[in-house]
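Example record for the data management plan.
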Amino acid sequence: MDNSEVTVGQFKKFVEQSGYSYQGDWNTVATYSLGDEYPMVSVNWNDATAYAKWAGKRLPTEAEWEYAARGGLIGKRYPWGDDEKIARDNANYEGTGGKDTWGQTAPVGSFEANGYGLRNMAGNVWEWCLDEYDGSYYSKSPAVNPLSGHDSIEVLTDNYKSVSSNRVLRGGNWINHTANLRVAARLNGPGHEYGPDGFRCVSGSNFTSGPSAGGDFTSNEVASSSEETSSGEKVFLPLAGKEVLDLADTSVTKVQICQSKQSISQCQHYSRSNGSSL
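Corresponding structural encoding:
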């Protein structure tokens, strides 16, 4: 998984090199993200998926996103733990204070990384996930590799232009209250809409959702510790472990991700003011 959101500079390079027809407003981007090192904003789900395909990556599933956001902390409310009082030193959200000095988005990597080496998993910009939004999905989802609304990542990404249903957004943004910084907070967003949203990518194997997905990990295996390259920019996260999704902010295990010993590697959202969260 990318250690930070896709930046304005990276998205500009994608548009220039691929000839992609971006239908958003560059003036809006410039208003809320002040330079190339800031997160790309005002992108819809199709834009994010197109960028990821161009980069040889994909968007994370919702389960992958939350697993990564927790950074190895089981049952905690935020990527840094349970203490809301230190949120100002760990995230860019409503207002300013402490290390949070920005009135709009902050440059990517502005806060300390979580336990998996990932930055800005809370606040700054909402981040698109692959999944179709379903408010009750995790009461009926497969226990392995859940992907709401679809059976196959490969089929979904190959046919993304035909997708019309609402998508999941995660992470909260710079104008949200701390409730939307929780790792369990979810937002329902029209995939075609240009809102205050951005994204990050993952690199790794595709899979089929559900019990048939298989995989060689067992339920009592845990994910390996994060591993940083000499450049300090990548972390490899085998997404297999007992704790992934927990919408009640407890330590109860609800979902396990198996990736058949394939690693998800890190590569590299203007925000909605009102997010529905569980």
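Summary line stored alongside the record: Strands lie at 126-132, 167-170, 186-189, 197-198, 202-203, 236-237, 264-266.
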